[in-house]
Amino acid sequence: MIELRGVTVRYGSTVAVDNVDLELPTGKIYGLLGRNGSGKTSLLSALASYRRPTSGTILVDGVEAFENPQVMHRTAFVRDTLDVNDSDRVSRVLRFAGWLRSGWDEAYAEKLLDLFQLPSRKTVSSLSRGQKSALGVVLGLAARAPLTILDESYLGMDAVARTNFYRELLADYLAYPRTILLSTHLIDEAADLFERVIILDRGRVLMHEEAEALRGRGVTVTGPSAAVDAFVGDRLVLGEQRLGGVRAVTLDTRLSPSEQSGGEAAGLTFGPLSIQDLFVHLTSSSQEASR
To answer: Are the C-beta atoms of 252 and 236 separated by less than 8 Å?
Structure first.
């Protein structure tokens, strides 16, 4: 179990993470979502023991994580900016990772190099932006650390490379279960990987739920304005659009079969809400409410 108790991270007068409480059962893939400046990287840095929280405590299996060699040795944190020496060759970076990580799989790392077409003799500084991202992915996956944190690690990778990354992450996770936290802005692309979703907004946890529950949580309702108004009633509306006499609303609710059939009889149509759409509506509503 990973526990965050009242974790706050400040930079001077700026509060990046604001009194966060979380319990994260191990052995799952977590999607960490948030808009720019929401505190995702600051939270992950604290979780990976890269930064001491200004206040609060992070526990891994009941022991404090910060400056705990046993916890840090079992944690792999890959950021969009690689924490490696730019003058080193890729092969040397991988050898160092093998020395550092007890679970390092050299054969798997070589397989990933081939998959992402990474030349092992090149120096890190000579790699393209996409190749550097791919190197980060290799370091994160081949380490097979019990706690693997990937913070926007796909940046710079093209669509094919990202697809290969998602496939490899899921396949290796199923073969070697561990806890993976994936921070991403490409929510629709990665959503099928998530078992749980954490949404941060202005340093606070806006939501932490099972991904499957979120996939069935929201619904869009479209039809004649009067019929939509009657159907909506006092339900929570996340967003709406109007065009002439037609109204489309996004609801934060789950409909029963009888509710949906009754709405269809009144001329309404219903559509599912993706995790990305729900994220957009929830964070937009939160921003508007704070004004």
So the answer is: yes
Q: Which structure tokens are listed for 212?
A: 């499957």
217-263 pLDDT, tens digit per residue, is 788 999 999 999 999 988 888 888 888 899 999 888 888 899 999 99
Q: pLDDT tens-digit profile of 70-98? A: 888 889 999 888 888 889 999 999 999 89
Written as one string, the DSSP assignment of 174-220 is HHS--EEEEE-S-HHHHGGG-SEEEEEETTEEEEEEEHHHHHTTEEE
Q: Hunting for tokens 């939270």 — which residue is that?
A: 43
Nearest in space to 181 (alpha carbons), one of 167, 200, 196, 162: 196
Cα–Cα distance, 10 to 231 (Å, whole number): 45
**Distance from the first to the final alpha carbon of the chain:** 37
138 exposure class (CB count in 10 Å sphere: 0-12, 13-18, 19+)? buried
Determine the Cα–Cα distance for residues 97 and 139; give it in Å rounded to an integer.
7
Lookup result for tokens 């202005």: 202
Q: Tell me how far CA of residue 117 lies from CA of 120, 161, 167, in angstroms.
A: 9, 10, 16
Q: Which residue bears the tokens 């994220």?
A: 279
Element (H, E) at 171: helix 159-175
DSSP 83: -
Tell which residue, 290, 98, 95, 100, has the closest CA to residue 201.
290
- Residue 285: per-residue pLDDT: 64
| Distance between CA atoms of residues 199 and 205, nearest Å | 6
